[in-house]
Amino acid sequence: MLTQLIFSETVQNALKGTLRALISTAFMIVVGIVWYMFIARKFYEKYLTYPKLSFRSIFPLILAIGFIASAISVQLPKSLGEAVIYGSLVGLVVYGVLNLVVLSVYKKWSWITALVDTLYGIIVTGLASLFLYFIFFRGKKK
């Protein structure tokens, strides 16, 4: 499978890429709020050592979402499967690296937590790519 990436040759392409990045960022933030605040809150509470949100605690997530939004917004998938696979691979790399860093810094962060969070990252970025595919690419000829 060979995926095509676009790098903004024109202002119009740059604006489309920016719009895709903003949409994927908003999607990931909404899904992240639902996941971290409602679905898996109890799971993560036992591993986090600081009780309130601070720049130090949310910066890695902002960084990860920024990398992911940038990476998946430049993709021009030819199929639904290609979009999901590319997004999932981006999630594996970004969340995998993020969790290895957190694992090395926070004593309470376990391998299980890192694995669950990396799997979450793979799924959410795959879904974000799927979401972008349906908005921008579905039914369009390449």
The value of Rg in angstroms is 16 Å
Structural class by sheet pairing and helices? mainly alpha
Separation of the first and last Cα atoms: 15 Å
How many independent structural domains?
1
The side-by-side strand order for the widest beta sheet comes to: 1-2
What percentage of amino acids are in beta strands? under 5%
Helix content: over 70%
Largest sheet: 2 strands, antiparallel
* Number of helical elements: 5
The strand count comes to: 2
Outline, from the CA principal axes? Answer: elongated
Q: What is the helix/strand order?
A: EHHHEHH
Average pLDDT confidence is 80
Low-pLDDT parts are none
Provide a compact summary of the structure:
This protein has 142 residues and is an all-alpha fold. 75% of the residues lie in helices and 3% in strands.
Explain how this protein is built.
It is a single chain. The protein has 142 residues and is mostly helical. It has one domain (11-47, 54-137). 75% of the residues lie in helices and 3% in strands. The chain contains five helices and two strands, in the order E-H-H-H-E-H-H. The protein has a two-stranded antiparallel sheet.
